[in-house]
Design a protein that fits this description.
Helix content is 43%, strand content 17%. The protein has twelve helices and ten strands. α2 packs across α3.
Length: 338
């Protein structure tokens, strides 16, 4: 375990390097921070931190920079989440409240995160498998053609056309709509198959085939496999950090184009807390020079998807964690109210 003073020195090195982009020397540390010890003591502490792998000396510079291990300790032990100011919170709320539908919420969230953090923003659409049914609408388009509209608790809307085996009257359709919603509204998607399995039996014999067809379409919609969707924005922000990527920026950009990679980076939605992956903790080699800060969002206190940012390891971790968490909270509120 590091002593409290060496933790203090590490915190000061991380803060200065993030702020100045320059390797940090002992003289600068004692001048900028009230460490309460001599430059010689700070030099000894820095030597110990270097021996332990928390900081490193780049090239021939006299200064030191944090390593992935140093950033990890900073995040785990030292970095509080920087709270957003009142004006910042109001700006976030006002920007997101103008959204007209789920696609607009996601698009605005991506733009907002990229602007707030000046990094690459990634937002996952709410997953159907983690959602609940808000309402099922059935609309008659023709005597034997129905539109099924599934609305989730996150505001996601799925539409399907249903070709019925025989004409289905408005009265029967209204009856099906009412019975269906009485069983599934407010229930988890995973419960729906069990809840509707005996529904056709309550209808006249000639209508049961159509009811079964409608239910089959509903169940197919619930178990779609291509539900994992992402939106990404702010990729151009990476060009500001050219010197933070030791090789070239191309591997980072290529990794960001792979949706599967990004989904793995964001992590499981069931883990709602702020998650920080630093440098080589990212399994994809192209992202070894980046850090990912992500958090779950959703309505009703349960995460249904993730959002986050990707940037260089030389990152303002407290500020980025605060921004990501604040945006996720407001997105969750908007989904709950939509």
């Amino acid at each position: 375990m590091l002593s409290e003073r060496r933790l203090q020195v590490l915190r000061a090195i991380v803060q200065d390097y993030v702020g100045t982009e320059e390797p940090v020397g002992s003289k600068a540390l004692t001048e900028r921070h009230n460490l309460g010890v001599s430059p010689a003591t700070v030099r000894n502490d820095m030597a110990a931190l270097e021996d332990d792998g928390y900081i490193a000396q780049p090239h021939t510079s006299a200064g030191r920079i944090p390593t992935d291990k140093g950033y990890r300790l900073f995040v785990d032990k030292l970095a509080g989440v920087k709270p957003m100011t009142g004006p910042e919170r109001r700006a976030i709320q006002n920007f997101l409240e103008g959204a007209v539908d789920l696609d607009d919420v996601v698009a605005r969230t991506v733009r907002l995160l990229a602007q707030l953090t000046r990094q690459v923003a990634v937002v996952q659409y709410p997953s159907l498998t983690r959602s609940t049914v808000r309402h099922v609408e059935l609309l008659s388009l023709a005597p034997a053609r129905v539109m099924l509209v599934l609305i989730t608790d996150t505001g996601r809307v799925e539409q399907r056309m249903v070709d019925c085996p025989v004409p289905f009257g408005e009265t029967a359709l209204a009856d099906l709509r009412a019975r269906l919603n009485s069983r599934v509204a407010g229930r988890r998607f995973s419960d729906v198959p069990r809840l509707v399995e005996d529904l056709p039996e309550g209808f006249e014999h000639e209508d049961r085939g159509t009811v079964s067809t409608v239910l089959s379409t509903l169940l197919e919609t619930l178990v779609e496999e291509n539900e994992e969707r992402l939106m990404i924005g702010g990729t151009a922000n990476l060009t500001r950090f050219g010197h933070d990527f030791p090789l070239v920026i191309r591997p980072v950009l290529e990794a960001l184009e792979e949706q599967v990679v990004l989904l793995k980076l964001l992590g499981e939605a069931k883990d709602p807390g702020v998650m920080v992956r630093i440098g080589h903790e990212n399994a994809h080699e192209g992202l070894n020079s980046t850090s990912v800060v992500s958090v779950g969002y959703g309505s009703g206190g349960e995460a249904v998807a993730k959002l986050g940012v990707v940037g260089p390891t030389r990152m303002d971790y407290p500020g980025t964690m605060g921004a990501v968490r604040a945006v996720a909270r407001y997105v969750g509120q908007i989904l709950a109210e939509s």
